[in-house]
Write a structure and sequence with these properties.
Blueprint: H1 2-29, H2 43-64, H3 68-93, H4 99-128
Helix pairs in contact: 1-2, 1-3, 2-3, 2-4, 3-4
Length: 138
Amino acid sequence: MTWLKNLMLGGAAFLAAHGLEVYRWRDWFDASNKFGPWFLNSGSAIMLTSATVAAAAALSAMLWARSGRRASRQSLEVGGGAALAMAITLFVIGPGSIFPIVLAIGTMVLTVSSFLGAWLGFAAAWGLGTRLDRPEPP
């Protein structure tokens, strides 16, 4: 059931970043208040969300990945959870007229972030020697 943990971890990471963006939008991301709080509306918000999802994927890889292939799979699970949370959030706040483009670009950003985070986490765990003595689960 690690896949379910990863989906939930990715969703929680996206929702945490989105909640922080909504709370601090005017102060940190859009002082002119031209755009509503959404992670693709500001470069800084993209970086915050990407870093949050990457950290979640790194944590997942450090805890549960025992091979590079497993780290890659976990990155897709974490990214998928984040993308699912993004899609649900988008439709709750109102999708707008370009929602297919928003979904596509947002999913790409979240997937790439989770892939990089998982590989960094796996490399850190491997470099620390914490994964060398554990066999790959079936």
